Amino acid sequence: MDVTMSKTRKLFSASKIAGYLLGLLGISAFAVTQFLSALMPLLFAPMVCAVLGLVLYKSQAGQKSSNAFDIQSNAVPEQSV
Known about the structure:
With about 80 residues, the protein is mainly alpha-helical. It has a domain at about 1-55. It contains two helices and no strands. It has helices at about 1-10, 15-60. The chain is rod-shaped.
């Protein structure tokens, strides 16, 4: 029984658990940075289009919209002189 307990104590030492957790944290951070570096170029074009679309929308919001389809038709024909 004493031999089993010493093997278990050697297997689960605090330094090994801390090393395992730090290694897992390092691998996770590396994977996240690699994923973000692959994703950033794909997000560049939609972000530029969204910003330019927002600027266009905000610049048009202050102006009165003149719609080409709001033409009032006159039933009386104009007479030429």
